[in-house]
Amino acid sequence: MGIAEKEGGLCNPNGIDIHQCWSTSTAMAPRLDSAAQRPASEELILNDCEILIPAATENVITSRNADQIKARIVVEGANGPTTAVADEILADKRIFIVPDILANAGGVTASYFEWVQDRQGYFWKEAIVNEQLETILKDSFDDVVRYAELTT
Fold it and tell me: Which residues are CB-neighbours of 41 under 8 A, at least 6 positions away?
């Protein structure tokens, strides 16, 4: 498992205690996990992993490193973390990509729900919000996958 920030990365094949690292920068992480390695962020995204989530900076997966990505799934948590050329390289490698517009849709959709509630002056129970959000996100995911299958 690995975590990368602008200042550097933290990697431990045996896992990282996320709760311990949640509010701690990678500069402090060695005190939390002495078994962890400290690769540069650029190196960390090239490690063997099942799921890679570039979630902070745009253009981190480029034509210079896309062919070295070993993840089976890339979830674009940041806005535009993958360049257009890199996207083609990942597609050729048959890496499953959850695009940023879908991966980030939950927060935007929940914000829309808040706006609607404010406009109506009627506030929904959390369970209703979560149910509607889940329905919209699942349907959107299915639509994106179907579209991708049609265009490949």
Answer: 4, 5, 6, 7, 8, 9, 60
Cβ–Cβ < 8 Å for 109, 133 = yes
In whole angstroms, how large is the CA radius of gyration of the chain?
A: 18
User: Exposed e or buried b for every residue in 8-37, given b needs 16+ CB within 10 A?
Assistant: bbbbbeeebeeeebeeeebeebeeebeebe
Token code pair at residue 98: 């959850």
Nearest of 103, 105, 58, 102 to residue 83 by alpha carbon: 58
- Higher pLDDT: 18 or 130? It is 130
- Quote the CA–CA distance of 129 and 131 in Å, as a whole number: 5
Which residue, among 99, 3, 90, 104, has the nearest Cα to 44 in the 3D structure? 3
CA dihedral 103, 27, 48, 34 (to 10 degrees): -130
Sheet holding 51-52, edge to edge: 51-52, 73-75, 96-98
96 DSSP β-pair partners: 73
pLDDT of amino acid 4:
66
Q: What pLDDT shows up at residue 6? A: 64
User: pLDDT tens digits for 40-59?
Assistant: 667 778 888 888 888 878 99
